[in-house]
Amino acid sequence: MRYEAPRAIEEAVALLADAEGDAHVLAGGTDLLVLLRAGLVTPALVVDIKHIEEMCEIAQADGGFRIGAAVTGAEFGEHAELKRAWPGVVEAMELVGSTQIQGRATAGGNLCNASPAADCVPAMIAAGATCTIAGPAGRREMAVEDIATGPGETVLGKGEIVVDFLLPPRPPRSADAYLRLIPRTEMDIAVVGAGVNLTLDDDGLCKDARVALCAIAPRVLRVAEVADALIGSAIDDAALELAAAAARAACQPIDDKRGTVEYRTKIAGVLVRRAALIAKQRAGNGS
Amino acid sequence: MIKDHVSTTINGEPVEFLCDPRQTLLDVLRDELNLTGSKEGCSSGDCGACSVMLDGRVVCSCLVLGAEAEGREVETIEGMAQGETLHPLQRVFLEEAALQCGICTPGFLVAAKALLDRNPDPTETEVRYWLAGNLCRCTGYDKIVRSVLDAAAEMRGK
């Protein structure tokens, strides 16, 4: 195994594109090193992207935020402006692992690891985030919801890396929230997770909404039907019940040790309802 | 196997070592540098026994490649005492018997110091959440949490 730590994205892309044999991007390493130790991957090349400046910084850009793919959970939580504008995205990223894991685990890794239960991904999808992807053919932009295709599978081709997440400008009276269910207080993998992002009009009616759910399908899903149930409503009980029903209808979960199909489906509705109420309250408070 | 040559700083001292690219920072600390205070528990980032500071953040050294230490600052449990003088956390852990077998203790101390460096006056809940990535199978945590709170109070009193 060869270890490389390039300083530029183009250099990282060239290394990955030209690699003979298995090549892996190393961001926080919280998944990759476990796989390496277990012998589940045997890469010929590991490309550490943490020396590439633009992948390690949070910048305010075009009224929104540009977050490098190698930014850690701890850095999300320490960024006061990001936390104010996107509390749901930050709380989702901060749910990933322990203090030690927060110091290493990255949003880009959470996305590219392509777990159906990735916590930061539904929040990013609800936020309407896009990613810049760099590859041998240059750069392109893609919606976050289009990147994972199934457990551990993404659309990324050989030599392609996710460079950053772009969060759009935050309109007035707009906020997000992320909730997940785990059977204990801390440090577990989501049974279900729900990200809700809302914008209210001057009368307090929901004028825009995006909702995404994790751990209820082979990949994190954006569920337009849930958003449609909220848009135009005062986010009252009737609208929340319609939204919860739409969330349940979108579920295609598996039965496993974390939860049954029936339980996950029921909880998806509960979390959508609660996350929508938190987002509504935050939007109304002008946070 | 071509080894990587790594120049780094460990506990304030410049250090150079050669490592296999697959070796973790924990392997390097223990097997190449004879810094055996950091312990190997789970090797998968769950138990925190291998906690070290990397550029000012507490991390599991079992989830860091040795090669990643290039140009970085590493602090281990060996750097916590000043000569013969124990850090207040170390002393209070001993005084209040916050350890039994001791395997988890270096990790707890490194992580607890990282907390107190950021937040000198944490609540019990904040201590428990911060240390949730450090597992102890002996003590039941109560004495550990109390020792961290007591050491924090003593350090604030200075």
Structure, explained:
The complex is a heterodimer of chains A (287) and B (158). Helix content of chain A is 34%, strand content 25%. By secondary structure, chain A is of the alpha+beta class. Chain A has two domains: 51-167, Uridine Diphospho-n-acetylenolpyruvylglucosamine Reductase, domain 3 (2-Layer Sandwich); 174-284, 2-Layer Sandwich (Enolase-like, domain 1), CATH 3.30.390.50. In chain A, β4 and β5 form a beta hairpin. The longest helix of chain A has 24 residues, at 261-284. Chain A starts with a strand and ends with a helix. The model of chain A has no long low-confidence stretch (mean pLDDT 96). Chain B has 158 residues and is an alpha+beta fold. Chain B has two domains: 4-79, Beta-grasp domain (Ubiquitin-like (UB roll), Roll); 88-157, DNA polymerase, domain 1 (Orthogonal Bundle). Chain B is built from five helices and five strands; from the N terminus they run ββαβββαααα. Chain B has a five-stranded mixed sheet with strand order 2-1-5-3-4, sandwiched between helices. In chain B, α2 (88-95) crosses α5 (142-157). The longest helix of chain B is centred in the C-terminal third of the chain and has 16 residues, at 142-157. The radius of gyration of chain B is 16 Å and the shape is globular. The model of chain B has no long low-confidence stretch (mean pLDDT 97). The chains are: A alpha+beta (287), B alpha+beta (158). At the A-B interface, α2 and α6 of A face β4 and α3 of B.
Number of helices of chain A: 11
How much helix is in the residues of chain A? 25-40%
Q: Report the portion of residues of chain A in β strands.
A: 25-35%
Largest protein-protein interface: A-B, 27 and 31 residues
Q: What distance lies between the first and last C-alpha atoms of chain B, to the nearest angstrom? A: 52 Å
Helix content of chain B: 25-40%
Question: Can you write the helix and strand succession of chain B as a string?
Answer: EEHEEEHHHH
Q: Which blocks of ≥5 consecutive residues of chain B have pLDDT under 50?
A: none
What is the count of β-strands of chain A?
Answer: 14
CATH architecture label of the largest domain in chain B: Roll
Q: Biggest sheet of chain A, strands in spatial order?
A: 4-5-10-6-7
